[in-house]
Design brief:
heterodimer, A: 290 residues, alpha/beta, Rossmann fold, 2 domains, seven-stranded mixed sheet, 21% strand, B: 400 residues, 3 domains, six-stranded antiparallel sheet, six-stranded mixed sheet, 13 helices
Chain lengths: 290, 400
C-alpha cells in the first residue's frame, strides 16, 4: 500500500503537450506511472507520448476512467484547469505549476470545499510512491521503496529528507510535496491521517518552514490522535530573524509572531521528535528502530 | 511589489476613500509651489517617500538633516523650505529599512488635516483560511506589528470573501469596536468597501491605513497609506507594474528579478545559489551554526534557460561581499546540467575569484558533474548538503 497514488492509479496530465510537461511525463511513464491520457485544448483526438489527448478533463475521465491528474498548465490557466478537474470529480489533483496569483488560489480553495478532490500543490515536486507512481517532477532515481512517509512544505528539502531516509538504509512509502506557495491545497494533517491508516507506513517525516501555522495545526491534531505513528519533524529558518522578512507581514498581523523555534517547540510538546539539522534525520530514523 | 504612500493614496482615492490634498515634490522649490496650490495657509505635512513604515519614528544619518524623523509638520512657508532642504538627498533610517537606510528623493507635501478618533485599518491575506481579512484597531501606535504581538485583543479581525465587502452587521461591529459615532456608519461603510475593492481589483497582499481618522465634517480620511501587491499577479496589472520605483531596489535585485529569480542580501560573506526557499533557509541555518552567514542568496527557481542561469550566477560572483560561493541544486524542474553550463559560462566571463563548492542532486546530476570536471575550474564538488557547507567553511578558514 501507499497513499494518494500507486501503480494502479490512472493518471492524466493537463497541459501534456507543453515543454516541461512532456519532459516529465515521459520520465513518469518510464518510471511505471499509469498515465492514461492527456488534456490540451484544441489537441483532442491526437496522440502524444503514446497516450490519447483530449480537449477536456471530463472527456478524458469518461474515456480513461482516470482518478488523478497532474497539472502543468501556465499560471494564468490554472484556475480553469483546476475547475475542470474538480468538476470531473477527480480524487487527486497535483498542481506542479508555480507563480499562481494568491487570489486565484483562494478561489480554487473555495471550489475544493465539499468536493471529492484533494489538491497537492501548487509549486510542488508532486507525489511519488517509489517504484509505482511519479506524479510530478521528482528526481526519481533517489527514491527507494520502504516504510517512511514524507510530507514537506519545501520542495528542495523534500529531496534532502529522502536522501537521509536512504542513508538510514530505509525507503519511502509515499513522498508528498505540499508546495512552497503562500496558499496551498492541502496541509500536513490530511496526509498524516492517510499515512496513519496505511499499513505500509511505519513512521512519518515532516518538513516545515516559516510562514503560516501548518506545524502548529499538525501538533494539535497529532496530540488529539488515539492511534499514532512516530513522526520526526524539521523546521527550516531558525536563523532568520522573523521581522526582517516583509513577506510575512500578513502572517504576523493575522497570527502573531511565530518563529521556526516556536513551530519546533509546538511539535516537541505534541510528542513529535524534532531535529535541528535535516542531516540528523537518519540518526533519528535509526533510533526509532532501536 | 511595494509602492509609495502617494501612489497608494492615489489608487485608494479612486475607490472613494478620502485623502488629504497633496502632491509629490522633488525639490524644495517644488515643495513650496505645491504648498501654495493645496492650501493657502499651513500647517503642511512633509512626508519622505521611501518604501518603509514607521518613517515618523525614524532618523536621518546626516547631521544636517536635523533630529526630527521622516515625517515633519511645518507651520510656515519658510519652515517648509528649510525642512524640505534638510530632508532631500539625505538618508532616512527606520526599523524597517535596516541600518543603511534609504535616501529621500521624493517628498509628499500634504495639507495638514485635523482629525479625531484615530484608528488603524488594514487588509491582508490570512493564508490558513485562506481569506481576505480586514483588521481594525483603535491605536495611535505607529507600529501595528507591535500592537498585534503585545495586545492582540486591540485588533478586530473580520474575514471577507473575494467578491463581497462587509455587510451591515460587520460595519456596525467595526463602528462599535472603534467607538466611532453612529452617524459615521455610512462613511465607514464606504471606507471599508473602498479598501476591499482596491485590494481585490489590484491583487494586493497588503493595504494599511495607519492612521485613518474622522474629520470635522464627519468624513473618514486616510492620513497614511501603504499597499503591496502579489508579484505573481502583476502580469494582469500593467498599471501597477509601472509604479515600481527601481530606485528602491539594489541593482543586483533588479537584475535577478528580470530573469525571474529571487535574490536577497544579508550581512555575511557566503554567496548562495539554490533552487528553493527551504534549502536556502536550511543552508543559512547550517552556516550560522558554524559562525558564518550568507552575503546573499539567489534562488534560480524554475530556471531552465542556461543564459539566464549564467546571468544569475554572475550576480553572485560580482557581489563584493562574497568571499565564498556555495551552489546547492536539487534538480527536479531545474536540471543540474543547465546550472553547470551556467556556472561555466559565467566564470569564463567574469572569472572565479572566490572559493566555490558545488553540490548537485537529482535530475541530470552526473551530466552536470561531467560538465564541471571538463571545465577544469578550481572548485570542490560535495556529495551532500552538510558536507558542502563544511567544505566551503574549511576552505574559507584556510584562506583567512
Amino acid at each position: 500500500m501507499s497513499i494518494l497514488a500507486n501503480k494502479d492509479t490512472k493518471v492524466i496530465v493537463q497541459g501534456i503537450t507543453g515543454n516541461q510537461a512532456s519532459f516529465h511525463t515521459r520520465r513518469s511513464i518510464e518510471y511505471g506511472t499509469n498515465i492514461v491520457g492527456g488534456v490540451t485544448p484544441n489537441k483532442g483526438g491526437t496522440e502524444f507520448l503514446g497516450v490519447p489527448v483530449f480537449n477536456k478533463v471530463s472527456e478524458a475521465v469518461k474515456e480513461t476512467k482516470a482518478t488523478a491528474s497532474i497539472l502543468f498548465v501556465p499560471a494564468k490557466f490554472v484556475v480553469d484547469a483546476a475547475r475542470e478537474a474538480i468538476e470531473a470529480e477527480l480524487e487527486l489533483l497535483v498542481c506542479i505549476s508555480d507563480n499562481i496569483p494568491i487570489s486565484d488560489m483562494i478561489r480554487i480553495r473555495e471550489m475544493l470545499k465539499g468536493s471529492k478532490t484533494t489538491l497537492i500543490g501548487p509549486n510542488t515536486p508532486g507525489v511519488i510512491t517509489p517504484n509505482e507512481a511519479r506524479l510530478g517532477i521528482f528526481p526519481e532515481n533517489i527514491h527507494n521503496k520502504g516504510h517512511i512517509g514524507v510530507i514537506s512544505r519545501s520542495s528542495t528539502l523534500t529531496y534532502e529528507a529522502v536522501i537521509e531516509i536512504n542513508r538510514a538504509k530505509m525507503g519511502q512509502s509515499t513522498v508528498i510535496g505540499l508546495g512552497d506557495d503562500m496558499v496551498i491545497g492541502s496541509d500536513f494533517t490530511t496526509s498524516v491521517e492517510k499515512f496513519i491508516h496505511d499499513d505500509e507506513t511505519k513512521a512519518i517525516v515532516i518538513i516545515g518552514t516559516l510562514g503560516g501555522t501548518y506545524e502548529e495545526e499538525l501538533s494539535e491534531y497529532y496530540q488529539s490522535l488515539k492511534k499514532k505513528k512516530p513522526i520526526i519533524g524539521f523546521v527550516a529558518g531558525r536563523s532568520v530573524p522573523y521581522m526582517t522578512n516583509v513577506g510575512y507581514a500578513g502572517d504576523i498581523i493575522t497570527k502573531g509572531h511565530i518563529s521556526a523555534q516556536d513551530k519546533k517547540n509546538s511539535m516537541s510538546k505534541a510528542g513529535i521528535v524534532t531535529i535541528d539539522r535535516i542531516n540528523d534525520l537518519h540518526h533519528e530514523l535509526l533510533n526509532l528502530v532501536k | 511589489m511595494n509602492i509609495h504612500e502617494y501612489q497608494a493614496k492615489k489608487i485608494l482615492s479612486q475607490y472613494d476613500i478620502t485623502i488629504p490634498k497633496g502632491a509629490i515634490a522633488y525639490t524644495p522649490a517644488s515643495a513650496k509651489k505645491i504648498a501654495d496650490e493645496i492650501a493657502p495657509r499651513g500647517p503642511w505635512m512633509l512626508k519622505s517617500q521611501i518604501h518603509s513604515g514607521a518613517r515618523n519614528n525614524g532618523y536621518f544619518i546626516e547631521n544636517e538633516a536635523g533630529k526630527k524623523g521622516g515625517i515633519r509638520k511645518v507651520e510656515s512657508k519658510r519652515e517648509l523650505i528649510k525642512e524640505s532642504e534638510k530632508m532631500f538627498g539625505n538618508t532616512l533610517v527606520t526599523i524597517q529599512t535596516g541600518p543603511k537606510g534609504k535616501i529621500v528623493n521624493k517628498i509628499y507635501v500634504e495639507a495638514y488635516t485635523k482629525v479625531k478618533n484615530l484608528f488603524y485599518a488594514g487588509m491582508v491575506i490570512d493564508r490558513m483560511e485562506p481569506a481576505v481579512t480586514l483588521l481594525v484597531g483603535k491605536t495611535e501606535d505607529d507600529d501595528i506589528i507591535k500592537v498585534t504581538l503585545n495586545n492582540p485583543e486591540k485588533i478586530l479581525k473580520i474575514k471577507l470573501s473575494l467578491d463581497q465587502g462587509p455587510n451591515v452587521a460587520q460595519v456596525r461591529q467595526v463602528l462599535n469596536f472603534l467607538e466611532l459615532p453612529s452617524n459615521a456608519f455610512k462613511n465607514l461603510k464606504k471606507f471599508i468597501n473602498g479598501i476591499h475593492k482596491a485590494f481585490i481589483q489590484y491583487d494586493a497582499t497588503l493595504i494599511e491605513i495607519n492612521p485613518a481618522g474622522l474629520t470635522k465634517s464627519g468624513e473618514i480620511i486616510a492620513l497614511d497609506a501603504k499597499m503591496s501587491f502579489d508579484d505573481a499577479s502583476l502580469y494582469r496589472h500593467d498599471d501597477i507594474k509601472v509604479l515600481k520605483d527601481e530606485g528602491e531596489y539594489i541593482e543586483r535585485n533588479l537584475k535577478a528579478s528580470k530573469y525571474g529569480f529571487d535574490y536577497e542580501e544579508f550581512d555575511g560573506s557566503v554567496g548562495l545559489i539554490v533552487n528553493g526557499d527551504g534549502i536556502s533557509l536550511a543552508l543559512i541555518d547550517l552556516l550560522q551554526q558554524q559562525g558564518f552567514d550568507a552575503a546573499c542568496a539567489l534562488n534560480v527557481k524554475g530556471g531552465v534557460d542556461k543564459d539566464k542561469i549564467a546571468a544569475g550566477v554572475k550576480i553572485i560572483m560580482t557581489n563584493p561581499k562574497v568571499e565564498g560561493i556555495l551552489i546547492n541544486i536539487l534538480g527536479g524542474f531545474v536540471r543540474c546540467n543547465l546550472i553547470a553550463d551556467g556556472i561555466v559560462s559565467a566564470t569564463s566571463e567574469v572569472g572565479l575569484n572566490s572559493p566555490l563548492v558545488v553540490r548537485f542532486e537529482g535530475v541530470n546530476k552526473e551530466y552536470a558533474k561531467e560538465i564541471l570536471e571538463k571545465s577544469k575550474l578550481p572548485m570542490e564538488i560535495s556529495e551532500d548538503m552538510l558536507g558542502s557547507v563544511d567544505n566551503l567553511i574549511k576552505i574559507m578558514k584556510e584562506n583567512d
